[in-house]
Design goal:
mainly alpha; 336 residues; DUF2157
Length: 336
């Protein structure tokens, strides 16, 4: 290894240490790494954004195609043939992902975007394998249970190979969709009241926020915190907002709590540099304001006047939220 190569390999760790000591800001660290063609989390070259998008889209489309084929039952293939048609591509995708992204003996030939996409393809094919096994055994497995198992597999994959995209699939597939009962019975249906279900959803969202912070703040090597930080606020705030609609009051305590939590989410997002928290908090704040307007004022005004007022309110709210978002997340101002 030549001295420049050794220096480049050690640079990310040194910069992270200097950032922790307060000698450099996160923006300065990212700028230095970008100038050297390194990613913020290691010595790999940072993949081009278009390559990441195209590769990930290709992996998802290919995986969905296999899922569609599984759904056709493949009447002309024996059981072992169906299994191999899914199992071998899944294992091949994992092997290809390792070879193109993580194999230390091929570091000079790494293609990080394509390697990550192949890992993701393997995770999608794992869902096809679960569906195929349930189909072959004629097991009366609920769709929500299969999605939860699929999400668990994607969760394990995400942590095994440090793949945030896998977690972004795992959380909605394994938690959000089964919890809401989109494709089957929801575990919340066993609760005695609708209010308890709303509070459970909000509690799951709050747990995701805590989990995100346990990974560490943005800018550190804990990149796997971002999916938790993204999916937590809509569940927490949405659960409390839904709780308001279980009451017959125009302005219930749940709506006030939702507003306080939304503003608190914005504040925490600014404090801990979580852009997703700022966005979700501002969006929920606007939703609460509109709810109060239509429930307290809209019913008391003439229809035409109410619509005019609503239009003006929406325009003003959009302007104020955009201004607030840019103020709280100043990095947006630097974008072209």
């Amino acid at each position: 290894m030549t001295p420049p190569d050794a220096w480049r390999r050690a640079l990310p760790e040194a910069l992270q240490r200097w950032q922790t000591q307060g000698l450099l800001s996160m923006e300065q660290v990212q700028a230095i790494l970008a100038a050297e063609g390194l990613s913020p989390h290691g010595a790999r070259p940072a993949p081009a954004p278009w390559a990441v998008i195209v590769s990930a889209t290709g992996a998802l489309v290919l995986g969905l195609g296999v899922l569609a084929l599984v759904g056709t039952n493949w009447q002309d293939l024996p059981g072992w043939g169906k299994l191999l048609c899914v199992l071998l591509p899944m294992l091949g995708a994992y092997a290809g992902g390792y070879r193109l992204r993580d194999d230390p003996h091929r570091e000079a030939h790494h293609l990080p975007a394509l390697g990550a996409a192949l890992y993701l393809l393997g995770g999608v094919l794992f869902g096809a394998l679960l569906a195929l096994l349930a189909q072959a055994e004629q097991a009366p497995v609920d769709t929500s249970a299969l999605l939860a198992l699929w999400g668990l597999g994607l969760l394990m994959l995400g942590y095994a190979v440090r793949l945030p995209a896998s977690l972004h699939l795992a959380l909605p597939l394994g938690v959000v969709i089964p919890l809401l009962g989109v494709f089957g019975s929801s575990p919340l249906s066993r609760l005695s009241t609708l209010e308890a279900a709303c509070m459970t959803i909000a509690g799951v969202g709050a747990a995701m926020l805590v989990t995100a912070q346990l990974h560490g703040p943005p800018g550190s090597h804990h990149i796997l915190s971002h999916p938790w930080a993204f999916w937590g606020p809509p569940l927490m705030l949405g659960g409390i907002y839904a709780l308001h609609h279980t009451t017959a009051q125009n302005f219930s305590p749940a709506l006030g709590l939702c507003l306080l939590l939304a503003l608190g989410t914005v504040w925490l997002g600014q404090t801990w540099r979580r852009a997703a928290w700022i966005n979700w908090g501002l969006l929920t704040t606007g939703l609460v304001i509109l709810t109060v307007y239509f429930e307290l004022l809209g019913s008391l005004a003439v229809t035409g006047l109410a619509l005019v007022g609503a239009g003006v309110l929406l325009l003003g709210l959009g302007w104020s939220l955009e201004r607030a978002r840019r103020h709280l997340n100043p990095d947006m101002e630097k974008r072209p």
